[in-house]
TrEMBL record:
Family according to the record: Belongs to the DapA family.
Protein name: 4-hydroxy-tetrahydrodipicolinate synthase
Class of the enzyme per the UniProt entry, highest EC level: lyase
Catalytic activity: L-aspartate 4-semialdehyde + pyruvate = (2S,4S)-4-hydroxy-2,3,4,5-tetrahydrodipicolinate + H2O + H(+)
A GO cellular component entry from the record: cytosol
Signal peptide positions on this chain: none
Catalytic site positions: 135 (proton donor/acceptor), 164 (schiff-base intermediate with substrate)
GO molecular function terms noted in the UniProt entry: 4-hydroxy-tetrahydrodipicolinate synthase activity
Compartmental location: Cytoplasm
Gene coding for it: dapA
Primary localisation category: cytoplasm
GO biological process, one term: diaminopimelate biosynthetic process
Subunit structure, as described in the record: Homotetramer; dimer of dimers.
Organism listed in the record: Salinimicrobium catena
Amino acid sequence: MEKFVGTGVALITPFTDDLKVDVKALQNLVNFQVDNGIDYMVVLGTTGESATLTPEEKKQVIATVVEENNGRIPLVLGVGGNCTSKVVEELKNTDLSAFDAVLSVSPYYNKPSQEGIYQHYKAVAAASAKPVILYNVPGRTASNILPATVKRLAEDVDNIIGIKEAAGDMVQAMNLISQVPKDFLVISGDDMITLPMVLAGGHGVISVIAQGFPAEFSKMVRLGLDREVDAAYKLHYDIAPSIDLIFAEGNPVGIKALLAKHGICKNNLRLPLVKATEGLTGKINSFVDNF
């Protein structure tokens, strides 16, 4: 589990102007992350616009990332949904050999009870050939995995090794950290409170903004883990304005604009997402120019 201590990045899926998967841009993106010190990468998460990809395109994204990474850093695959049997079937029929873990979002739209969430993840973990990281993001799922439920899963299911906690609630994060076993990974899913969570006993982050500033953000997390608090917070406050900017019109709208400014990919998204407005794009470009 040490391989997931530090900074993970939730990769975007770059698109060409005709909205096909941009393989060359994806290769560039992978190398940008690895070359700048990211600890691991997450493929086909929310930031990757996985909801708009066909099964064939998902295979294309996976093959591209796996080949370009070439075993240099660990990989995590996003596999989740709101029908437990479909998630189980997908896990049983997916080649996970190139991946070190699975990130699975809590069921969305259905609004299950805590018992429903618990039973869902028990079934998912039983079907997965690789360790499972829970993903709690109430703003998207309309339900919250409570710390007591995470503790129960951590204690009952050996194959569940951690959680990406993206409720954006520091009180909940601290309750979570204090309740789960010490070797259970509590990973921030909220860029703005990553450093406070690390200093409270968390293990790092699965980040969006780190994709745009991989060297700086991963350094901040390492400093936090090493308890170099002043230096870590200096970097946090340097980067923080960009976090507000990239989420102002939704994710991955802002980070794609930022990566386009870097020249890594084109600023193309699939509906129902649309490009950042001219005003926001100008603010992002100005931030990058002056960073």
